[in-house]
Design brief:
Elements: E1 2-7, H1 15-29, E2 35-40, H2 41-44, H3 52-58, H4 66-76, E3 80-86, H5 94-103, E4 110-113, E5 116-119, E6 126-131, H6 136-142, H7 144-160, E7 164-170, H8 179-197
Parallel strand pairs: 1-2, 1-3, 3-6, 6-7
Antiparallel strand pairs: 4-5
Helix pairs in contact: 1-8
Length: about 200
């Protein structure tokens, strides 16, 4: 099976990138012939701006741009989608949000027909790995865990029918020892497809 790991952070030496690489390493360590591809949105220069062309595509008045089609095809080849991202302002970074805005498009991720919603991604298990600087008590106290799960797990992926299998928060990323976060990422990668199969 094949995992597409999408990472959104401008610094290739960030904890976010290290977590993505450990996840991919874990997928390979599962010793089942699984593979993983890391899609580095910043390094690849993905344009997150939702343009007039994207709007026309949403209204089914034009085909999607070629960069959007390429991303959709990359997801179509995957048996699981993993998003690894830093928490910016209690949500996704703008680059990742723009990727979702453009790629999870009407006609591909979902279909609006005659006032009815058709969810088209029921076959795509999603794993979310958020990297945050705050401690768990801060997330708990202010309701950030629930707010992010409502917005992202339900609001985006639930709308498309993609089941969110894992919604993991790797917190306190500013600590000097990041061993716990990296081990958690490798373990998630190692068990990724056993969770999907279950």
């Amino acid at each position: 099976m094949h995992a597409l790991i999408v990472v959104s952070h401008p610094d290739p030496e960030s904890l976010t990138h290290h977590v993505a690489r450990k996840l991919a390493e874990g997928v390979a360590l599962a010793d089942e012939g699984h593979t993983a591809e890391i899609a580095d949105l910043a390094a690849e220069g993905f344009d997150p701006r939702f343009t007039a062309g994207d709007h026309a595509s949403h209204r089914k008045q034009a085909p999607p741009d070629s960069d959007v089609t390429r991303e959709q095809q990359r997801i179509d080849r995957a048996d699981a989608l993993v998003l690894v991202y830093p928490v910016y302002w209690w949500s996704f970074p703008g680059l990742l949000k723009g990727w979702i805005d453009r790629v999870f498009a009407n006609g591909w991720a979902y279909d609006e027909r005659d006032g009815k919603l058709v969810k088209r991604l029921g076959h795509l298990p999603v794993h979310l790995v958020a990297i945050g600087g705050a401690d768990p008590g801060t997330y708990d106290r202010h309701g950030y865990f629930d707010a992010m799960k409502t917005q992202i797990d339900h609001g985006i992926f639930g709308y498309c029918g993609a089941p969110v299998v894992t919604s993991e928060f790797l917190l306190e990323s500013d600590l000097p020892d990041r061993t716990a976060q990296l081990e958690a990422a490798r373990d998630l990668g190692r068990g990724l497809f056993s969770v999907v199969a279950a």
